[in-house]
Design brief:
Largest sheet: 5 strands, parallel
Structural class: alpha/beta
Distance between the termini: 17 Å
Number of strands: 7
Keywords: Glycosyltransferase, Transferase
Number of domains: 1
GO molecular function, one term: glycosyltransferase activity
Helix content: 40-55%
Shape: globular
Order of helices and strands: EHEHEHEHEHEEHH
Number of helices: 7
Oligomer: single chain
Length: 173
């Protein structure tokens, strides 16, 4: 695929995960929006990290979420590149209010305005490909799929390493 163009959001997440491979420690991956969940799912799986939605947003995807304690933690906000800058800024403010020690933004590709907004409010920004994001399969992420991805991610995190994930039938989507 050409720069900034992905087959789907899962592929975009796998490409972003390669860039984020150096992140270590107790990072929490938060999807900025429902359409970002497939991207964030692949990133969280690659990092063996906990995945959730931005506090306040995830409830709409799957009901009452378990409380995440972000105090002193490193938070990786992931989007598919379709968020507007105000959404990102509000999410960063929310996780900082919850005590996040460090906030990182990750995008497979993103418009300049989103990257500039991220650069003003996060501690670190990672963009896998230059240019605007483009997806061959650009269908929105339905609420049912969002709930399923969060449930699968919780199971993977509880199980542990990626090797265990493959043993339980979770492969590249």
């Amino acid at each position: 695929m050409s720069k900034g163009k992905f087959a789907d959001r899962f592929e975009a997440g796998r490409r972003l995960a390669v860039l984020l491979d150096g992140l270590d420690g107790d990072v929490v991956v938060l999807a900025l929006r429902r359409d970002a969940l497939p991207v964030a799912f692949e990133v969280a799986r690659a990092l063996d990290a906990r995945l959730d939605g931005v506090p306040g947003e995830a409830r709409a995807w799957r009901g009452e979420p378990p409380a995440l304690d972000l105090r002193g933690r490193e938070v990786l906000l992931v989007d598919d590149g379709g968020a507007d800058p105000e959404q990102l800024i509000a999410a960063v403010e929310r996780v900082r209010e919850m005590g996040a020690r460090r906030v990182i933004a990750g995008f497979p590709a993103a418009p300049r305005e989103l990257q500039e907004a991220a650069g003003r409010v996060v501690d670190e920004i990672h963009v896998a490909e230059p240019g605007l994001p483009s997806y061959v399969d650009d269908l929105p992420t339905p609420p049912e799929q969002a709930a399923e991805l969060l449930e699968r991610a919780l199971e993977l995190y509880a199980i542990g390493p990626r090797v265990e994930a493959r043993a339980h039938g979770v492969h590249d989507t």
